[in-house]
Amino acid sequence: MRAAFCTGPQSIDLRDVPSPQVTRDAFVVQVHACGICGSDLHCYRGGAPPPPVCLGHEICGLVTAGSDGLTAGEAVVVEPLIACGACARCRAGEPNLCPTLRILGTTAAGGFADAVAVPASSVYRLPPGLDLDTAMLAEPLAVAVHAAHIAAVALGDEVLVLGGGTIGLLAAFAAARSGARVRVSARYPHQRSMALALGAAAVIEAERAAVLDAAVREPPDVVLESVGGAADTLDLALRTVRPGGRIVALGKFTQSIMLHPLRFLMKEVHLVSSMTYSRRDARPDFVTALSFLVRERDLLARLITHRVPLVEIANGFALAADKSSRAIKVAVTVAASG
Asked: Helix (H, G, I), strand (E, B), or coil: what is residue 215?
């Protein structure tokens, strides 16, 4: 079968590899679509070493053989975490914090391929009213849902989202659906218009001075940082959040983070990182994400701005990396690529 690997900066290689096999503990999912994520782009841009496995963790498709209540050909989305299931963190509903955690597309073969082996515990049946073309968004939306939960976003909160990529936009959506008034800092016009469509009350130019000026006038209770990379946005979050406020770090930083220690002390800020999604609550973050997708499918589907077949995945990465293309989410449509 075909599988895509990042082999260096701006280099995506489509190879022939052995097909995965069904086991007692794992399904094989015939991939319908898989989204290009910001963490994939870090490797593509040379900001992080490429993994030795096939990329892709925003996966949906069809199971190839029935088991555990699913029938062959049934449509599913994939939670790409491979946890032990037995440690204290797993038992607490936190497989994302498992000491032996592996992640599809990072430390295990991912979804930019014709098929992928998936732990049985990581497969969610597609709910009625949701199609596979949109279901690919479940994984990034679950990331945003988890961040809103960690931040304890509540009715009437003033929330600032730093970054207008897919995760930032979905974080704004999740915070707005929690009753917050949301502002988003975004660099590009297509990101700003999408933020407003998803429920943001206002958008701010991404320049540091503009964000600081807006925060002086209306200090946020919560800042959700979604930029990462080499940006100084965590320091910006500390500068903008109100005293006693909450900061959630969503972005994947590729270098050490610098914070002003006295400012951090004097503001008594709650700073926490957000690692993917969990099952701590009665409803796992993935289930909440799927329910949002069912209720607001047409709106959320607008985030998928480009679709490319697997044979053109290199072009898909180039599109996703080039913001002048007006790309937000680029989907690699595997099943439709022939």
From this structure: helix
**C-alpha closest to that of 172 among 130, 121, 225:** 225
Nearest to 286, CA basis, from 150, 137, 103, 154: 137
Kindly report the backbone phi and psi dihedral angles of residue 43, in degrees, each rounded to the nearest multiple of 5, phi listed first: -65, -45
CA distance 141 to 128: 18
Q: How many CB atoms lie within 10 A of CB 212?
A: 13
Q: Give 305's DSSP letter.
A: E
Q: Copy the structure tokens of residue 7.
A: 């082999």
pLDDT of residue 19: 95
Of 208, 218, 220, 160, whose CA–CA distance to 184 is shortest?
160
Domains and CATH numbers, the chain: 2-137+303-337 (3.90.180.10), 141-273 (3.40.50.720)
CA-to-CA separations, 126 to 2, 123, 191, in angstroms, rounded: 25, 9, 28
Mean pLDDT (the chain) is 94
Per-residue pLDDT, 67: 66
Query: Residue 130 phi/psi, 5° resolution?
Result: -120, 130
DSSP assignment of 232-275? -HHHHHHHHSPTT-EEEE-S-BSS-----HHHHHHHT-EEEE--
> What tens digit of pLDDT does each residue of 171-221 get?
999 999 999 999 999 999 999 999 999 999 999 999 999 999 999 999 999
- 91-128 b/e with 16+ CB inside 10 Å = b? eeebbbbbeebebbbbebbbbbbbbbbbbebbbbebee
Tally Cβ neighbours within 10 Å of residue 74.
15
Are the C-beta atoms of 28 and 114 separated by less than 8 Å? no
Cα dihedral 101, 98, 256, 241 in deg (nearest 10) = 130
Question: What are phi and psi for residue 25, nearest 5 degrees?
Answer: -105, 0
Of 32, 226, 5, 1, nearest to 106 by C-alpha is: 5
Closest by CA to 270, choosing from 251, 243, 250, is 243
Q: Measuring CA to CA, which residue among 255, 254, 243 is closest to residue 219? A: 243
